[in-house]
Structures are given as structure tokens and as C-alpha cells.
Amino acid sequence: MTDIQQNGAARPLPRVATIFDVARVAGVSTKTVSRVLNNEARVADDTLARVRAAVADLDYRPNPNARSLAGRRSYLIGLFYDNPSRNYMADIMGGAIRRCQEKGYHLLTEPCEADDPNLPRMMVSVAARFRLDGLILTPPIVDRPDVLDAIAQANVPLVRIAPRTDPARTPHVHMDDEAAARLAAYHLADLGHTRLGMILGHPDHGAAELRRRGFMNAAAERGLTLSPDHVLPGDFSFARGFAAAEQLLALPNRPTAIFAGNDDMAAATVAAANKHGLQVPRDLSVIGFDDSPIAQVIWPPLTTIRQPTMAMAAAAVDLLIGDTDPEPVRQLGFELMVRQSTGPVGG
Amino acid sequence: MTDIQQNGAARPLPRVATIFDVARVAGVSTKTVSRVLNNEARVADDTLARVRAAVADLDYRPNPNARSLAGRRSYLIGLFYDNPSRNYMADIMGGAIRRCQEKGYHLLTEPCEADDPNLPRMMVSVAARFRLDGLILTPPIVDRPDVLDAIAQANVPLVRIAPRTDPARTPHVHMDDEAAARLAAYHLADLGHTRLGMILGHPDHGAAELRRRGFMNAAAERGLTLSPDHVLPGDFSFARGFAAAEQLLALPNRPTAIFAGNDDMAAATVAAANKHGLQVPRDLSVIGFDDSPIAQVIWPPLTTIRQPTMAMAAAAVDLLIGDTDPEPVRQLGFELMVRQSTGPVGG
DNA sequence: ACTTTATTAGACAACGTTGTCAGATGTCCC
DNA sequence: GGGACATCTGACAACGTTGTCTAATAAAGT
Fold first, then answer.
1. B128–A contact, CB cutoff 8 A
2. Which domain holds residue B113?
């Protein structure tokens, strides 16, 4: 135990090729190398080729610190978030990191408090100091007007994911929660269910209301109206969903199918059914929303609507980097994943 | 939709205070400010106070890029991982990021491929270029000898989380999986169970074998031996766990309690029991390992062993930064979380 | 042939810190 | 009182890029 290498002071890292080395090998000035690296126009074809060859030869990569110190860019994108759901954030971060890697960017992830009054100042300060090339915001901080104001005033590019207010204000990425929820209603109606129940999402989360509206409207189209006591509030948490489900299942005229505002609450509904001796889907159909990992880690696996979370994060990165389609709003598709938690009524 | 602010070229970020501003305000040289910022010795008390005041006054924070370009450090720690489990990585990242924030560091997270032959070169290259202050490795790449060699040769401080091979080789953080698994066996024995079953973890993961050994030995201490057909291989996945559980439950002399190598497989066991009309814990006790989020998002909630994942990541950061206890190995505690998936034999 | 203009390339100064090294000041001892 | 020493501070040169400005060359227009 005593001869374990200690992490200490002096540590001469291996020398890495610099822009000078490349310039020397290619027989040009450092500035020309820089031009090639940054795809600036006006470099003669053969110069370009020579520089490219030297870069490849030396396995040269520009030092990001020097780059962002000297230039205006950092090749760094900031992701600020307040931890609503682990799975959601894991997907967001995963999708963003992957795309960043592809594009030669890096992601700086900064947890924060959604109700911190200092948030605007803090974000601008980090952005300025790191010279962030852009910011990505996720719900719920995506809708704080003071944050949006500060970022706009500081001139930091911003892409919001799933904003609920003021959509025209910034570029953003979103999906059509309402249309997705309609799909859930059609699916249940097609299976012959007529007594539908719903457990709502967190009222502060914009998507919750959209999902409610889509589900109710689509049900109405099929001639089904939900009785008021079959629609219970929730907050996207398992515990609250479990309580709501128990309440629904105790009703004398209980629903034969329940649409939960997200997968956690759908899982809670399945669990509550199990607890009360009801078989899913024979006695009760359950449909969730998100297609989070939990959907496939319970039995029966959940029928749910796949929300393209990773793709949304990737699209947000694309919008920030701006080397693709300049359309500042991107709407992504969803998909109904039919698994085994739904079935014909009485089935 | 046309007047949405586009992310474009020129964007004058707000001016932030530099070390020169602080020096001017405090009436000292920039070098002295630097000394104060880096806690170097030999600064007179009143100078120190003046500089500190100026820093606070201007809300000055050193520019990280300039800092790591000029100095030897980056205040950046690299976390390389190959995505084994979402929940596990979310905990690792969360724990590491939080501690980094506290210490004024940042975390660079880099997904990679565990079997990429280029991994060593790639890691050293990133470390050198970013002047990373250290590297954190998680299973399974934590055990690749070529990676360890390359990092050692490049002189990059390294802390491993839960290494299985060569523990004396580097500082590391771990927990005593064997002792933890013993706890599971004692718990079941105390409840009166005599027919115990186990679903093993992935054979490539060092912890799997430790958990098996601990469980079996502790059971033996209590006079219980597991019949060979009550110990089934698994791989930490829900699907594989589900199949194994179904196989165990179909046995004529099925176990009354099952210890699964992790929570996903424990959840699968509960699910399989539900599917076959068995009530947990009345007809079957199930105990998991990890205390991952899924433990509380099924019903009944899982009795499981809490693995201090976030704390391990935080400890890894501490070891790298090295401003605390210099002991290069840190073993963290675990805890038996008794919930509702275990109960006395026969209900 | 001679300017004008586009194209390509280089010299050199930023960028905001820390490292090195030397200078200034104060303290102690003989 | 003067040297040796410890303590504190500052000037200045890195660090590795990009921005700005200017020079050299080639192409085009008169």
C-alpha cells in the first residue's frame, strides 16, 4: 500500500505537437495552419493539402485553451439543468455529448437550482468566462423570463428544449406532446376501452397540460368523455402516481384503461394494480409516456410513447453550432411503442 | 417565426474583470493577485486582505483557459466511461460534478468504447491537450492493463473506481462487495428462509464474484447451503434476470428467497413472481443490490444494499485533487435498505 | 505596359493567466 | 553597523492559438 503512485505536484506531460510543428513540417506560417484548421476561405489548394498532410502526420489537434483564449470561441457548449428526472437528464446529456463529440465540441454540464435568484448572473458569468459558444436549457429553467433576458442581453446563443412559454423568442427543439397524447387515446379506443382514466403530470411542466388536452380531445373524437373523478392530478413521481392509481382502482366504476402522464406514474399504476390483485393488461390497460428505461424494466413492459430525448439534445447542439439547416425551430417525431401493458378490454 | 434571434457570428460578450483590474484595485502586481488566488505561501496579511477584497468587489473569477494555458493545471478532471448502466453512470457523474463544483473544478465527461484498441492513445492525447489534472476510470475500462500503462507512462494522475485487478497499482475507491453480500444472506436467514436462491452478476464485472462469495459464505455460516440449481448465471440485465427468475420459480422445490446480483435483476425477479401469481414478499422474498432508482419505482419497493455510488465518485475527485487525507485508497460503507420485498418465510 | 483588384501568405500583437528570477524590504545575529 | 537570511513583491517572458494588418503575387482591366 505504500508504493502506490501518489498524485503529486510535478508531472511532465508528454509533449504534444503544436501549431508551430505543423507550420514547420508544412513549410508555411502558423497563421496559415490556423486558416486551414478553421476552414477559412482563400487558401490555395496545394497549401491546403500540405497543411492537412502535416496535421495528419503529426496527429496534431489544436490546444483548446489557447484556442479559446485567443479566439472568440471555446468549442464548448454549456448545459444548465435542474435535476428533474435522472433518466431524462441522462438522455439529454448523452445525446448532447455524443453530437458534440462528432462536431469537435465539448459539453460543460452545470447543475443548478431552478429557483436560485442568482441564476441569470451566474449563467452569464460562466458563459462569458468560458466564452461558451452557446447554451442549452431544459425544463423547468427553460421558461424563466429573467434567465432568458439575461442571456439575450449578454448575447449568448441559446437553444431551448421543450419550452412552454414564448416559443417565438429563441430557437428551440420540441415535440408535439398533444399529438402524441392523442395517439394514446386512439390506441385505447381501438382496443375497445370506454372507461378511460388519466393521471396528470406536474402542473408546472408545460407538457403536462398538452398531454391532458390531446388525450381528452382525441377521446372525445371517439365519443368518449372522461368522468371528472377519473382524471387525477399527479406530479410525474412514482409515489404520487401510485396514490392516484390506488384511488382510481378503488372507484366502484373504475376505468379499464389508464393513461399516465409519464412512465414513472405508469409503472406506479401497474404496481398498484399488482398490489390489488389486478392483472395487467387483462384487468387494466396502462399506457405511459416517454419510453424511459423503466418501461422495459417492469413486467409487463409498458406500452408508451417514445419521446426522442437524445435526438432533441442532439438537435439542440446542431442548432447552436449552426452548420446545418438554419431553421431555428426543430420539431421531432414521436412513436407509440406497443408493448404488453395494454390489451383489449376485458381481455 | 422569422424574427427569432439567430445564432450567428459576431457576439460581443460582456466584459469580465481580469487579473489586471484586480491588481489595479488592490494596488499590487498581477503576480501577487495570482499568488493569492492560488494560495501560495508568503503573502503578507494585509496584502492578502486587500486582494481578497478587490476580488470580491469585482466578482472576479480567473479565466480558466488562460489559467491552464499558462499554468500546468486545467482545473479539469476527465471521466472516461463506457456506458454500462445509465443509473450507475448518472450517479457517478452526479457525484463527481457536484464535488468538482465545490472545489472549483470542472468535469469533462468522455464516453468511449471499452474495447477500442486506440483507447490508451486517445486518453493520453486528451489528457495532454486539455492538461487534465487527473483521470477517473470506472468499470469496465478500469481494468485494462494497456490503458493503465499508458496513463502511468504519461504521468497523468489516475483514480480508479471499483477496480478488480491490481488494486495496489493506483489510488482507488471501492466498497466491500463481499461484506455487503453477507449482509443480504444474514437478513434472509434472520427471516427464517432456508431455501435460498441467487442470480449472479456479469462474470466480467469483478463485483459479481465477490457478491456471490460473500452471500454463499455467510449462508454457510448459518448452516445454509445453496443447491447448485438455485444459483443461476446472470449479466445484470433485466431480461436475463427475468429468464433466470422464471427458471428458479418453476423449480419443484423453488427457493423462498432470492438474492439478485443487482436491482435490475431483482426487479425482474419481482416481475416474474407477479407474472406467475406469486405475491412478494408473502410467497417469495427478493433482495437486490445497488439501491438504484428502480428499487423504489416498483411495488413492493426493493429491499436492497445501498451502494454509495455518488460518494465514491466524490471521493475519487477528492483523491485526485489531493487536498485532503493523502491515503490513496478509500473504502466506503454500504447499508442494508430494508423495504418491502423481503419478509418472514411463509408470509 | 501600367494600374487596379483579387487572392494568398506572413509578421506580430493580442488573449489572461502562471513560472522564473531578481529586487526590495525587514530581521536577526555577531 | 553590517552581513546573512528570511520574507515579500514585481517585471517580464512564457503558454499556443487567433485577429489585424500588411506584403507579395497573380489576374484582370484599361
1. yes
2. 76-174+310-332
